[in-house]
Amino acid sequence: MRTLGNIIWFIFGGLPLGLSWALVGVLWCITIIGIPIGKQCFKIAEVAFFPFKKDVRLSSSAPSLILNVLWIVFGGAVLAFEAIVVGAIFYITIIGIPFGMQCFKLAKVALLPFGADVVHVRR
């Protein structure tokens, strides 16, 4: 069932969200200093493309707090807004609520990507 959810998600919402994360990752990787930030963007893009069977665990530390504050200013707010808008569109339809929940999960990660670990769920 999760595989079917990932296929439907990719067609109706995952492709634009994942491409947004990948584009931001490429832009960060253009600068040498931004490569660690770009790598984190690519990790989150994988979740954006296929979110079912994946969970994101957030942790906090001082370096990740500093990076998260910089991230919100230089890219995170736009990605979070995009995920919230797509999630709200999914929530309008009753059948799209599970997809809307995935969008809101991505919006949370878009605001706090540093200290986030992607965990593959085996249920």
Produce the secondary structure layout.
Blueprint: H1 2-30, H2 35-49, E1 54-58, H3 62-92, H4 97-111, E2 116-120
Antiparallel strand pairs: 1-2
Helix pairs in contact: 1-2, 1-3, 3-4
Describe the structure.
With 123 residues, the chain is mainly α. It contains four helices and two strands; from the N terminus they run H-H-E-H-H-E. The protein has helices at 2-30, 35-49, 62-92, 97-111, and strands at 54-58, 116-120. The chain has a two-stranded antiparallel sheet. Helix 1 packs antiparallel against helix 2 and helix 1 packs across helix 3 (62-92). The longest helix is centred in the middle third of the chain and has 31 residues, at 62-92. 29% of the residues are buried.
Tell me, what's the shape?
A: globular
Count of beta strands: 2
Strand proportion, as a percent range, falls in 5-15%
> Could you spell the SSE succession in H and E letters?
HHEHHE
Keywords:
single chain; 123 residues; mainly alpha; two-stranded antiparallel sheet; 8% strand
Provide a quick synopsis of the model.
The protein has helices at 2-30, 35-49, 62-92, 97-111, and strands spanning 54-58, 116-120. It is mainly alpha-helical.
